[in-house]
Write a structure and sequence with these properties.
By secondary structure, the protein is of the alpha/beta class. It is built from eleven helices and twelve strands. It has three domains: 91 residues, Winged helix-like DNA-binding domain superfamily/Winged helix DNA-binding domain (Arc Repressor Mutant, subunit A), CATH 1.10.10.10; 97 residues, 3-Layer(aba) Sandwich (D-Maltodextrin-Binding Protein, domain 2), CATH 3.40.190; 90 residues, D-Maltodextrin-Binding Protein, domain 2, CATH 3.40.190.10. The longest helix has 24 residues.
Length: 291
């Protein structure tokens, strides 16, 4: 029995951590940032895993990676091992930071990046619990000001003076999104999907259309980016969304489609007065993640 154990190859925790990060983030570059390694080092780690188990764990193409059937099995066990490791460490090491964070996030982050980011934060701050509320920016700011939330990530116009009380941690290009080979962009008036007044995406998009003399009508109102994307995929509308949201059959539309550019939008931290240590730790994490 002892001889059998000695001959069994060991999968190091760092290798499993990298495996999970690649699965969560969807590509080697983002995973490399998450585990604080270079993309080439991450590739070497994946090769070590595949050499150890004698099976490929990822299928690679030009834009993304997907997990193989063998990789799915390894991933399931890897998550369990990493969780068990955290539980063991917590039994013997008093955490520097513990407590809770009431966090607000907008819908587009909840759909795309937030689940993976919260998982990563939980791995580095095992004794901090995060309770998330998804709402629109105006409501999130009100909830922070009232003390209902400790902090929130909110969208904003980085050029407006009234937004300067917010800490902007990320800027991204807003673009017109349409269905690949669709014709919604050719209609007059232009059918668009936005949310209610006060939404920065709506303001930027409609101001741009007005300044360029393009007729439009609000054909689809939805507070959730998933609903807007559904309308885009049905070729009912075009919609202003972050450039990173244009994937698959949803493509970026521009001047060649008769659509004017839209201003960038900012992602900012809104924080309550006298933040606790867990709240400050969460804020530092998001600053680093979006740096």
């Amino acid at each position: 029995m002892a001889e059998s154990l000695a001959q069994t190859p060991l999968l190091e925790l760092d290798l499993l951590k990298t495996l999970v990060a690649i699965s969560d983030y969807g590509n080697f570059s983002a995973a490399a940032e998450a585990v604080h390694r270079t993309p080439s080092a991450v590739s070497m780690q994946v090769k070590r895993i595949e050499d150890l188990i004698g099976r490929p764990v990822f299928q690679r193409n030009a834009r993304s990676v997907s997990v193989t059937a063998e990789g799915e099995v390894l991933l399931e066990h890897g998550r369990r091992v990493l969780s068990l490791n955290s539980e063991i460490v917590k039994q013997f090491i008093e955490p520097e930071i513990s407590g809770g964070v009431r966090l607000g996030v907008p819908d587009n982050l909840a759909e795309r990046s937030m689940p993976a980011m919260l998982r990563q934060f939980g791995q580095t701050h095992c004794c901090v619990t995060v309770d998330v509320v998804v709402d629109d920016t105006e409501q999130l700011k009100k909830r922070v000001n009232s003390g209902e939330l400790d902090m929130a990530l909110v969208t904003c116009d980085p050029g407006k003076k009234e937004e300067r009380d917010l800490e902007i941690i990320h800027r991204e290009k807003l673009v017109w999104a349409g269905k690949k080979n669709g014709i919604a962009c050719e209609r007059d008036p232009l059918p668009i999907s936005v949310w209610e007044e006060g939404c920065h995406w709506r303001q930027s998009a409609t101001e741009s259309l007005k300044s360029h003399g393009r007729n439009f009508r609000i054909a689809f109102m939805c507070a959730h980016i998933s609903g807007q994307k559904a309308a885009v995929l049905a070729d009912l509308v075009v919609a202003p969304i972050p450039q990173s949201g244009c994937t698959g059959e949803i493509i970026e539309l521009g001047h060649e489609h008769g659509l004017p550019p839209i201003h960038d939008y900012g992602l900012a931290i809104a924080m309550g007065k006298k933040p606790s240590a867990p709240v400050l730790a969460a804020a530092d994490y998001f600053r680093s993640a979006y740096a």
